[in-house]
Predict the 3D structure of the following.
Amino acid sequence: MAQPIRHFLQFGDLAREELAWVFERTRIIKERFKRYEFYQPLRDRTLAMVFEKASTRTRVSFEAGMYQMGGSVIHITTGDSQLGRAEPIEDTARVISRMVDIVMIRTFEQSKLERFAQYSRVPVINGLTNEYHPCQILADIFTYLEQCGPISGRIVAWIGDANNMAYTWIQAAHLLDFRVNVSTPPGYPLDPRLAPAGPHLKVCADPIEAATNADLVTTDVWTSMGFEAENEARRRAFADWQVNDEMMRVAQPNALFMHCLPAHRGEEVTASVMDGPQSVVWDEAENRLHAQKALMEYLLLGRAVE
Ligand code: CP
Ligand code: NVA
């Protein structure tokens, strides 16, 4: 009997033991890549990437990753496809998924991604929606494991916006048994539908309280893609939600700093932190490549790997 198609639309779409597998495969795939070993299990497979928002890291990591694994890639955007001329997402899914083996989509509402997946014959990966950014958190948690060991029982401080990154960290904490201390400015609270209360989540009014004793301090832009009209109001509201040296001082002495990038030095993070010794932002970015190769391998081949 045919196996059901596996998608990665949110972090929780993979069970804890599947995540452990993907992290271990990420380690092995990264090691082989560093040794310049050929590893092409996805020969003859094609990835379609659909971008309705801008990207540097997501595009380059998926595209390079698929080529490195022996496959090929098709890149489309709203502007250069019929998506921009209102072809329904359901029809687009039916068509694209008859021609390729796997699809990555970056779009606005999570519901749009889910509608695509519902009509797709092949696995669909979330390359960022307004609600979630699960590929980034795969890379971030892999980076933590690589540098510090197990994340269970640790404290992650989230400073800033209640956005796709925050909600994905919260989902991951629930699944992998760590805690996220979240501090957002007044007027920008977490949406309880995306961040249910529980022991893995502590909401702090004061960002310094959130960062205190944290093992990892992380933030993101004050204004995410799609919300640019709020830029000025956000600049004022978020001024005290900046990761700076004072905030890093109250965290654990060996705490890491992460940012999914792109970053705005002088806004959500100071240059001293972003370019300082605790920052692992470039490793995070690189690990997008390795983690997504392991993810595509898992979604397409399961555990039948060399
Ligand atoms: N972090 C991330 O997803 O970056 P891009 O927007 O450049 O893809
Ligand atoms: N929260 C940001 C992440 C960019 C990678 C955004 O959605 O624009």
About this structure: Residues 128, 163-165, 220-221, 224-225, 260 surround norvaline (ligand 2) (CB under 6 Å). Strands lie at 46-51, 72-77, 102-106, 124-126, 155-159, 179-183, 201-203, 216-219, 256-259.
